[in-house]
Amino acid sequence: MEVSVYLLKWKEGESVEMSESKWIDASLSQPEQDVEVIVLLKTPAEGCYKIAFGHIVDKSKCVDYNGWNIEGVRYWFPCPEIPK
User: Fold this and answer.
1) What is the pTM of this model?
2) Based on the number of CB atoms within 10 Å of its own CB, is 17 exposed (0-12), middle (13-18) or buried (19 or more)?
3) Which of 18, 42, 55, 80 has a CA positioned 20 to 30 A from the CA of residue 11?
4) How many CB atoms lie within 10 A of CB 5?
5) Closest of 2, 53, 5, 7 to residue 31, by C-alpha
C-alpha cells in the first residue's frame, strides 16, 4: 500500500514550497532508536489508521511492541523540523 503526505514548508511565516514524501512501511524499515517519528497505527476499521508519535525503544530496558513504544504501528514518517 502506498500512502502519501504533503508537507507545507515554511520560511519566516510564508509558504515557500510543497513537497511530496512517502510513509515508510514499518515492517520494512524502522527509524533509529529513540528518534521520535509520526506513525500510523492499525485500527479495527480496515484501511483506517490513527496518527500518533512513536519511537523505537531499547528492548532490554523497555516493554516494546515489535520494537516500538506503542502497539499497532504500520507506517512511519520522520518528524519535520519545527521552525523556532
Assistant:
1) 0.70
2) exposed
3) 55
4) 14
5) 53
- Those residues whose C-beta lies under 8 Å from the C-beta of residue 52, and which sit 6 or more positions away, are 38, 39, 41, 70
Does residue 72 surpass a pLDDT of 90? Answer: yes
> What end-to-end distance do the CA atoms of the chain give, in Å?
35
Which residues have C-beta within 8 Å of that of residue 39, sequence separation ≥ 6? 26, 51, 52, 53, 54, 68, 70, 73, 74, 75, 76, 77
Farthest-apart Cα atoms in the chain, separation:
45
Partners of 33 in the β-ladder: 56
